[in-house]
Amino acid sequence: FHSILLQNSDIQAKEFAEMLVSADWFSFSFGCLGNFCTANMKQRIYLMLSSLVDVLLEQKTASHIRDALHCLPSDPQDLLFLLG
């Protein structure tokens, strides 16, 4: 998914990002993060999230997610608490 977002044209990437969001990608990915709390899984989920933010918001605001990657929790419930 990540490579598709990064390599396709802007219009195709935005359509794909909207499809992922509407297909409950967040529920699936954070479920994986909750079940497989490894550093590699955490990195992949948050990098994908940052790419989705970049494509959907059409800004480079996702760099903040990438910069804070090492500080973000592996447990989705902890993340919800931080966002809450």
TrEMBL record:
Coiled coil: none annotated. GO terms for biological process: meiotic DNA double-strand break formation. InterPro entries: PRD1 (IPR044968). PANTHER family: PROTEIN PRD1, PUTATIVE RECOMBINATION INITIATION DEFECT 1-RELATED. This is At4g14180-like protein.
